[in-house]
TrEMBL record:
Coiled-coil ranges from the UniProt annotation: none
Signal peptide range: none
Transmembrane segments: none
Protein's name according to its UniProt entry: Gfo/Idh/MocA family oxidoreductase
Top-level taxon in the UniProt lineage: Bacteria
GO molecular function, one term: nucleotide binding
Annotated GFO/IDH/MocA-like oxidoreductase domain residues: 137-261
Domain Gfo/Idh/MocA-like oxidoreductase N-terminal: 6-117
Amino acid sequence: MSERTIKFGLVGIGGIGQHHVNYLRSMEHVALVAVCDTDKGKADATAKDCGAAAYYDAIDMLDRGGLDVVIIAVPHYDHPTIAIEAFKRGIHVLCEKPIAVHVNAAKAMIEAHEAAKARKPDLQFAIMFQERTLPYYAKLKAIMESGMLGKLSRATWIHTKWFRSQAYYDSGGWRATWAGEGGGILTNQCPHTLDMYQWLFGLPATISGHAHIGKYHDIEVEDEVTAYFEHASGMIGHLIVTTAELPGTNRMEIVGDLGKLVLENNKLLYYKYPQSMLKFSQETDQRFAEWEIVPEEIAVDTNVPNGHHVVTERLVQRLLGNRVDLIAEGPEGLGSLTLANGIMLSSFKQRPVPVPIDGDAFQAELAERIRTSSYVKKAVQQPDANQDMSASFGTTK
C-alpha cells in the first residue's frame, strides 16, 4: 500500500461540512490540512480542533493551502465557482450535491474539468452521491443491470421521508430562497433521490412536473412535488416528494414484463410472474385475471460499508494509484439536476418539457423569480454547530 498522504481542504463548515471533518480524521492516507469558512470564528475553531490551517476565502485556500483535493460543502450557487477555480489549479474536486443549481452552470463545471485534464490528465472530479452505497439501492442497481424484470413498464417512488420543520428553514438566511438556494426540496433534499432514479432507469424523454411553492412552510420555494416521466422505452415513472409529512413514506415499486419489485421498510420483495405479463395479456382468452403470487424477500447484506466516507475512500484509492471506480463521477451530477430543473421548468410553464431540457429557459425563469422576489425571512435561527446531521441523510426505510 502506498505511504502517500492525500492532502484535503474543506470549503464550508456547516452541518455537512462538520460531518466531513469528523470522518476525514479517521481515514488512512488522508490529512485535512486546510478548512475554509466565511465565518472566521467557525473556521478558526475547526482548524484548531483538527490541526489544520484556517482560511476565510476559498480562492485564498486554493492558492496557498497546498491541497491535493478540495471538498466543496458550501451553498449550492458557489459549487461551480469553487470547482472551476480548483480545476484551473490542478486540484481534484469532491463536490457535495447538487452539482449546481442549474444545468448551464453544471455544464460549465464539466467543461472546465475537461479543459484542465488537457494539462493534468489524472485530474479527478467526484460528486457526493453516497446513497448509491446504501445496500438496498445497490441491490436494486444490480437487479436492474441483470434484466431480471424484463422490459420495464413502470417505476413509482413515493419518498416523503424528508420532513423539515419551519425551524429548519429558519436556520439559515439562504435556505429555501431562490437567491440563496435556487429551489426547495428538489434542490436540497432530493438530489440523491433524483440521482437514484436516473441511475436505475436512465433519464426520461419527457418530464411533467407539478411543484407547490411554500404550501406547508413559510418559504418561497417548493416543498411538495409530483412528477411524471415518460421514457423512450415506453416506461413511465412517478415521483412524489414533500418535506411536510410525518411519518413519511419511502416506497418504490418497479414493474417489468417478468416481475415486480417493491422496496419499503428495509424489505425488498420480488413478485416473479409465471410468464410474460405482456404476452399473457395478448394471448389469454380470459377477460379478467389475477395472479396469486407469494412474494420472495430478496436477501440484502446490510453490513457492507456505506455512506460519505465510502465515496471519499474511493477517490483516495484512485489518487493512490489503485484501479477503482468512483462511486459517482462529477459529470454524473448532471442527470439529477436535469430532472430537478426539468420538473420545475415544466411546473413554471405548466406543460411537459423534453429532455435534454432548455437550460437557458430554466435559468431565465429562475432569474425572474430572484428579480421579483419580495420574500423576507422573519427570523434566522443559528443551528447548533455540533448537531448530528445523520438524521438528514436519506435511507431506504
